[in-house]
Each structure stands twice: as C-alpha cells, then as structure tokens.
Amino acid sequence: MAFKPRVFSGMQPTGNLHLGNYLGALVRWVEMEKTHECIYCIVDMHAITAAWQDPKELQTAIRDVTAAYIAAGLDPRKSILFNQSQVSAHAELAWIFNCTARLGWLNRMTQFKEKAGKDRENASIGLYGYPVLMAADILVYRGTHVPVGEDQKQHLELTRDIAQKFNSDYRKEIAEAGYTDGEFFPLAEPVIMGTATRVMSLRDGTKKMSKSDASDLSRINMTDDADTIARKIQKAKTDAEGLPSEEAGLASRPEADNLVGIYAALKDTTKLEVLREFGGSQFSTFKKALADVAVTRLTPVNAEMRRLVSDPAEIDRILKDGSERARAIAEPILAETKRLVGFIG
Ligand code: AQP
C-alpha cells in the first residue's frame, strides 16, 4: 500500500539533553514539522532499560524533555508530543515483534554491546530488547520517516528487517485483508541529514557526545548557562596546530573536525564555509567565536525551557492531549495486527 508519509522519533528522559541531541535530532524534527505529520515521543519505557531510575527524577526528566522539545521549536498543537508509557499499544506490539525478531539479529546490535559493557550477564532483558520496542514505537503508527542521529542507523535497519519479516510471515493473511501489494508495515527510512549527525565529545573527538559520559565537560547540556557553555568550549580538547583552510586538513584531527562541525551546524552553514572564515586562525580565536555562536543559539532555548518547566501541570496536560491523539492512531493499527496474527477479540 502507498503509506501516508508520517514522521516518528523519540528521546530518552535520562538526564540532560545535550548539543548532540539538539543538533543531531531536535533541529531536524522542527524542520520536518513544517512539511510532515509528526509524532514525537518521550521514550520513558526505554529510559528504565539501562539502569534503575529514581521515580521522582524520572518524572522530572520526562517534563524536562517535553519542555526541551517545545523550547526547541516544536508546536504541540501541530505535532503529537507524548510520553510512550501512556500508549500501551507500543508494549503490546513489541511483544508480537519479540516473536518476529531473531536472536541473531539482536546479537549484532552494537549499542547493546557498548551499554552492557563487560558485565553483559547483569544487563536487563529490556536493554537487550530495546531495538524491538523501538521498532514497535515506529511501526505502531506506520511511521515512514525517522529523523535520528547516526548512532541509531543500525536500530533502524533492524526495524526494517522486522517489518519485512512480519509482512512475509503473514503474507497470506495480509493479502486476504485486502493489502494487494503485501505491505502491512512500511519499511521506515532513517532521515540522517546535516553537518551534525554525530556530535562528538568535547574531551575525546573519537567518542560521541553522550548523556551518560561521566565527565560533564564532555558535553554542552541544553540547560547550561552562558558562562558554563563558554568555559566548556574553552576547555575543549584540541591539537597543537591552527585551523586548516581546506576540509581535507581536518582528516585525522577528530577534535578540530568536531568543533568546526558544531560551528557549521549552529550557523546553518558548511564546514568549508567555516574554514574559509577561520582557516589559519589559532584555536583560541575560533573557540571564542564558537562560544558566542553557541550561547546566542542556546540561551533563548534554555530560557524558554526554564519558563515551561515552571508549570508542570501545563506540561502534563500537553502530554495527556498528545497521548490521546497518539492512541487514536495506534490502537486501530494494533487491533488489525492482532487479527492478522490470529488473536480473537
Ligand atoms: N552525539 C550525538 N550526535 C548526534 N545525534 C545524537 N543523538 C544522541 N547523541 C547524539 C541523537 O539524539 C536522539 C535521542 O537520543 P536518545 O536520548 O534516545 O539516546 P541516546 O542516543 O542514547 O543519547 P545519548 O546522549 O547517547 O544517551 P546515553 O548516554 O544514555 O546513551 C537520537 O536521534 C540520537 O541519534
């Protein structure tokens, strides 16, 4: 069937959102809202997979992430904003997909290997099954486009494998239900665009900027004030050389490449343009300019986030409204899926 274009994406409410989440995902989401029907989720069920979360802190984090979505520019009257746990269809479809996905597919997931680390035996089953729930998150809305950072590419491939196998396992039932081209679930496409699809740590240009990095100096949080942003950029690791004039000069210089990429993304320009302006400069000069750009771009978002979180009842109302609209789409798709599988009811 020709699927209606529908965007789905989400973020985990685990600690502060950072510049990687902002540039790699949120900025794209806001752009896609202008042209597409969009569903943006706060994936609270994913948030409890890696480690035990303090319930009070989890509630705060869910509201903070909602505020970040809106402060970054999303309009809750246009897009559907909600927290995952309010729509039980995600978990129900994930169970069916647990029986579709193969162990071998999940064993290849690099994020599980990274997050479970050496203590694999002690990782939760939820962490292992995370990509299956992610597939259900997307497909329970028949999502067709998924704007994410590069780190999520492998999970999106798994989502496509699950959709394909489900379509194939139930091809007879799907045909009998009137889907003449055999497609019940779409093969969702990752949307990975822009200069900041992988923002790296400020302390180590080979590691991605991440909420769970032990060093706060490794990332710029969306809640950092102007002084903190400037201090973190000033302390960012660099090498001894100045900035090159050509992009090729950034090869094998991960820290320099990262800072130039961040500047380009914040200014909506290209790395080449940045190097045209700063080629030959010392990092001390460039870092000052970068701090100014980062502060100019993030300070209004930060102020709006603080304003929004001061009214938690309004955030809860937005999430409730979003979850009702999300359920209205998800429940008929789940009911149809159950009928295809052979469940009575
Ligand atoms: N460094 C990054 N560069 C570009 N995009 C990024 N994203 C995350 N880090 C970067 C994108 O942000 C979206 C939401 O991510 P998430 O909250 O679901 O979790 P994550 O990918 O696990 O983010 P973190 O910061 O790395 O958290 P931890 O440390 O808990 O693992 C996704 O679209 C992601 O691609």
What is the secondary structure topology, with strand pairs?
Layout: E1 6-11, H1 19-33, E2 37-42, H2 44-47, H3 55-71, E3 80-83, H4 89-98, H5 103-107, H6 110-116, H7 125-139, E4 145-147, H8 153-169, H9 171-176, E5 189-191, H10 226-235, H11 254-266, H12 271-278, H13 283-309, H14 312-341
Parallel strand pairs: 1-2, 2-3, 4-5
The structure holds adenosine-5'-tetraphosphate.
Adenosine-5'-tetraphosphate binds at residues 11-12, 14, 20-21, 24-25, 148-149, 151-152, 197-199, 208-212.
Short structural summary:
The protein has helices at residues 19-33, 44-47, 55-71, 89-98, 103-107, 110-116, 125-139, 153-169, 171-176, 226-235, 254-266, 271-278, 283-309, 312-341, and strands at 6-11, 37-42, 80-83, 145-147, 189-191. With 345 residues, it is mainly alpha-helical.
Tell me what the structure shows.
With 345 residues, the protein is mainly α. The protein is built from 14 helices and 5 strands. It has helices at residues 19-33, 44-47, 55-71, 89-98, 103-107, 110-116, 125-139, 153-169, 171-176, 226-235, 254-266, 271-278, 283-309, 312-341, and strands at residues 6-11, 37-42, 80-83, 145-147, 189-191. A 3-stranded parallel beta sheet has the order 1-2-3. Helix 11 (254-266) packs across helix 12. It is globular, with a radius of gyration of 21 Å. The mean pLDDT is 96. The structure holds adenosine-5'-tetraphosphate (AQP). The site of adenosine-5'-tetraphosphate (AQP) has 19 residues, from helix 1.
